[in-house]
């Protein structure tokens, strides 16, 4: 018996992330919200729900409006996803904004401030 480096849900999440990247590039017009990247896809263990974490670069829209943009189109996106997946069922899509990069930038600024003023 061989041990696989990732769980089934992690492998399926990676596959969905790649496919959604293609769908966003080819099928969904995201020009109104800016450049969007999918940072991570987390699957439930039963593979029925995909939590999709997205971030944007230089967007004039708020995080909530970006998430709403995708949540309103989730059934439409799910239809495209079903054409590319080889699994029996297509998971429900739930979108979340990933602000990890922004938070890391804030922490980096705090560290720089501490180095300048060690008090």
Summarize the structure.
The chain is an alpha+beta fold. The protein has one domain (8-116): GMP Synthetase, Chain A, domain 3 (2-Layer Sandwich), CATH 3.30.300.20.
What is the radius of gyration computed over CA atoms, rounded to a whole number of angstroms? 18 Å
CATH homologous superfamily classification: K homology (KH) domain
Number of helical elements: 4
Give helix % range.
Answer: 40-55%
The percentage of residues in β strands lies in: 15-25%
Question: How are the strands ordered across the major sheet?
Answer: 1-2-3
CATH topology: GMP Synthetase, Chain A, domain 3
CATH architecture label: 2-Layer Sandwich
Shape: flat
Query: Which residues sit in consecutive blocks of at least 5 with pLDDT less than 50?
Result: none
Topology at a glance:
Layout: H1 8-26, E1 35-43, E2 49-57, H2 63-72, H3 74-84, E3 92-97, H4 100-116
Parallel strand pairs: 2-3
Antiparallel strand pairs: 1-2
Q: How does this structure look, described?
A:
The chain is of the alpha+beta class. The protein has one domain: GMP Synthetase, Chain A, domain 3, CATH 3.30.300. Helix content is 48%, strand content 20%. Helix 1 packs across helix 3. The longest helix is centred in the N-terminal third of the chain and has 19 residues, at 8-26. It is flat and about 60 Å long. The model has no long low-confidence stretch (mean pLDDT 86).
């Amino acid at each position: 018996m061989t041990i696989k480096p990732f769980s089934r849900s992690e492998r399926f999440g990676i596959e969905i992330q790649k496919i959604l990247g293609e769908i966003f590039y080819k099928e969904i017009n995201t020009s109104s919200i800016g450049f969007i990247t999918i940072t991570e896809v987390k699957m439930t263990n039963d593979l029925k729900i995909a939590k999709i974490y997205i971030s944007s670069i230089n967007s004039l829209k708020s995080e909530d409006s970006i998430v709403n943009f995708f949540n309103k189109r989730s059934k439409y996106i799910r239809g495209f996803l079903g054409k590319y997946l080889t699994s029996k069922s297509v998971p429900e899509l739930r979108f979340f904004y990933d602000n990890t990069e922004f938070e890391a930038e804030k922490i980096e600024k705090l560290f720089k401030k501490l180095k300048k003023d060690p008090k």
